[in-house]
Each structure stands twice: as structure tokens, then as C-alpha cells.
Amino acid sequence: MSENSANGVSRFAVELGVAALTGAFGAAVCHGSLDIGAGWTEMGPDAGYFPFYIGLLIVFGSLVNIAQAFLKHRGTGEIFIDAGRAKVVASFLLPLVAFGAIAAWLGLYVGTALYIAATMVFQGRYKWWIALPAGLGVSAAFFLIFEIGFQVPLLKGPVEAWFGIY
């Protein structure tokens, strides 16, 4: 696809951005490994020895990806994502981010009920009186499966204190 990069985000920019992020992650791994010791002692390797070299491999891989981006995609104008596709991706990504924030604050059961109901209403165009019981039903099913069936407590947030659970 050889299009004008003014119509979207270029593949070259995305390749460089991802390589920079993974390179920064590898550098952070190396830095953390040096803090706890990445050398070799008379008893063997320090705690950070293997993570340090894994971090170096990640940095090396990122540098290779940067070189490949310059060789293959620089100046091609190839589009990675345009505005229309970005809108579709955001319509699914933003509710997931909101679910994560709500689940961390109010617990997984409340977050799941709200996510299912909101997704049904806004993306599926269901009526609220259908979506709300569906969201509550999924949360109730998760509670029965995890809390009662498997006896695995999940994050409840303040709901635990409100209902006196555990």
C-alpha cells in the first residue's frame, strides 16, 4: 500500500516507536540488573546476571528493528493506520481501558457488569433494560464460578465492605 502519509500514521513511524519502546524496556531491565548485581562471583552468577543479558538481547533486537525500519519502510509512505480504522480500534480500546480503571477502583464484578452493559448499549445498540440484566447476570455467573465454585476470590474493591463479604 503506497499512500500519502498525511492520511494516517506511517508504518515507518510505528516501527520506530515500537522499537524505541522495546529498547527502553531492555535498557530498564539492564539498569535494574546492575542495581542488584550482574556480575559473576565465586558462588556463581549474581541475581541480575541473566536478566542483564536478556535486557541486552532486547536492546539488540530493538536496534535491529530500527535498522530494518530505515531499510524497508523509510520514505515509502506506507500507512499503518488511517483515521477510520483508528476510530474503530478506539471504540473497542477505550472501553477496555475504562473497564480496567473501574475494575481496579470498584472491583471486577462491578466493572464487568458495567462493561458488558455499556458495550451492549453503545456498540450493540441493545436497550438498557436488556443490557443491564445481562451485565449483572454475567457478574453473578462469575461470582458463582470463581468465588463459590473454585473458591478463588477476585478483586471486589469497596463492594466487599458494603456487603460484608469475607
Automatic annotation (TrEMBL):
DUF1468 domain boundaries: 17-154
Chain coiled-coil ranges: none
Domain of life: Bacteria
Transmembrane segments: 12-34, 49-71, 92-116, 128-146
Pfam families: TctB
Keyword tags: Membrane, Transmembrane, Transmembrane helix
Name of the protein in question: DUF1468 domain-containing protein
Lineage: Bacteria, Pseudomonadati, Pseudomonadota, Alphaproteobacteria, Hyphomicrobiales
